[in-house]
Write a structure and sequence with these properties.
By secondary structure, the chain is α/β, with parallel strands linked by helices.
């Protein structure tokens, strides 16, 4: 089983949006997927609850129980677990990062979001995880994405070559418990999620943390 955690100090960076989209994408590709919502607001769980019995599965959990919840998911036969966390670089985020094979950090290309990067990096360093930053809500025009990549180009940080645009489809799809690739499979939003999932190179068989680090290195431009 492979576990992905989305963590970020800054609220509104897009953790839940990316977590739900990746979980559905994984399920569509044949991974038996579970999303564990660790945020007390349970936003991801509420979105997926609108899907009824349609997968992926979702549950809410307290971060302190991750050492039980993740092994239980593996015992139940899940291929992939996605952890969505609250917008805080605290003990809960640290637990999620330690429980994950891969840590993703969404960040919008704004100075407020970029200022919060180091706090999230500190959590990942404590967890001994090399995170992958995902630029999110990138404007269609302008130099924000390039400038953001330059800011995040610090030791120990990897930026995904795939950025997500500021797409309406990401927002309105949640109204019916859908994701962009279901709402409009031919949309740019759908294409970006597909490309992001491909770039993460999530394994289908056995894995180790060492192998995960090698896969993360491959994401470097």
């Amino acid at each position: 089983m492979f576990t992905i955690a989305l963590v970020c100090q800054k609220g509104g960076a897009g953790k839940t949006t990316i977590a739900v989209h990746l979980a559905v994408e994984a399920q569509q590709r044949g991974y038996r997927t579970l999303l564990i919502d660790l945020d007390p607001q349970a936003s991801a769980a509420k979105v997926l609850d609108r899907r009824g019995d349609q997968p992926p599965d979702v549950t809410t959990e307290h971060p302190a129980r991750l050492d039980v919840a993740v092994p239980a998911a593996e015992a139940e036969g899940y291929d992939l677990v996605v952890l969505d966390t609250a917008p805080q670089a605290d003990q809960a985020a640290l637990r999620a990062a330690r429980a994950a094979d891969l840590v993703l950090i969404p960040v919008r290309p704004s100075i407020v979001d970029l200022d919060a990067v180091q706090a999230t990096m500190d959590v990942c360093q404590l967890a001994k995880r090399q995170p992958v930053f995902i630029l999110n809500a990138v404007p269609a025009q302008g130099s924000e994405a390039r400038e953001a990549r330059e800011v995040i180009s610090i030791p120990g940080a990897t930026v995904s070559p795939v950025a997500l645009g500021d797409r309406k489809a990401f927002r309105i799809a949640f109204n019916d418990g859908q994701v962009a690739q279901e709402l409009d499979p031919k949309s740019k939003a759908a294409a970006e999620i597909t490309a992001l999932f491909d770039a993460l190179n999530i394994p289908t068989g056995s894995h180790s943390h060492t192998a995960t680090i090698e896969r993360v290195k491959e994401l470097r431009p």
